[in-house]
Design a protein that fits this description.
The protein is 45% helix and 18% strand. The protein binds 4'-phosphopantetheine.
């Protein structure tokens, strides 16, 4: 049997319901989906790569054909190592398109056509979501229950030290 595999690369700092929606739908299309966290030394993420991998594992534990991994360097090199030829990206709005098209075309060119990109349009209910806005809302102790799973929200508030603050306020 030929296994059809795909990679869903990203920063996932942290995972949102928008990502989870793309993961669930991709996992139905492909036999195996590897969610790959980019270890980007140039960025200062809120969650370490190890934390992000753990969070993704927890959030996807009920989807058997999803694996979580991390990579550094070029996506095409990682895909080659895994012998995978499809990258999945989510498109929320037209504003994502230019950036995503550039990445997709660069990857196609750099890989000599070996890595294709498939875009899934984000479900409308999640179109407004981004990890950056979720972090900003959480940093002000705002309600992110519509944006991320509960355990992720808890981890975000912990990161911003809000739980401790709440306890001292009581
Ligand atoms: O969640 P993000 O930060 O929008 O994801 C961007 C990501 C990880 C898909 C992209 O930056 C990437 O693949 N980086 C790895 C480096 C690489 O392969 N660059 C060449 C394509 S421009």
């Amino acid at each position: 049997m030929i296994m059809k595999s795909a990679i869903y690369p990203g920063s996932f700092d942290p995972i949102t319901y928008g990502h989870l929606d793309i993961i669930k739908r991709s996992a139905e299309i492909f036999d195996e989906l590897i969610v790959a966290v980019l270890d980007n030394k140039a960025k200062t993420p809120l969650f370490s790569v190890e934390e992000r991998v753990k969070i993704l594992q927890e959030a996807t534990k009920d989807i058997p054909n999803v694996k979580v991994d991390s990579f550094s360097g070029l996506l095409i090199e990682y895909a080659k190592k895994k012998d995978i030829h499809v990258s999945i990206r989510g498109l929320r709005a037209i504003t994502d398109f230019e950036y995503e098209l550039q990445i997709a075309q660069t990857n196609s060119k750099l890989s000599g056509g070996a890595l294709d990109t498939i875009f899934l349009t984000t479900s409308l209910e999640y179109a407004y979501l981004s990890s950056s806005s979720v972090k900003e809302i959480a940093s002000f102790n705002g309600d992110i229950s519509q944006c991320v799973p509960d355990f992720v929200a808890d981890l975000l508030y912990q990161k911003f030290d809000l739980q401790k603050k709440e306890n001292t306020d009581e």
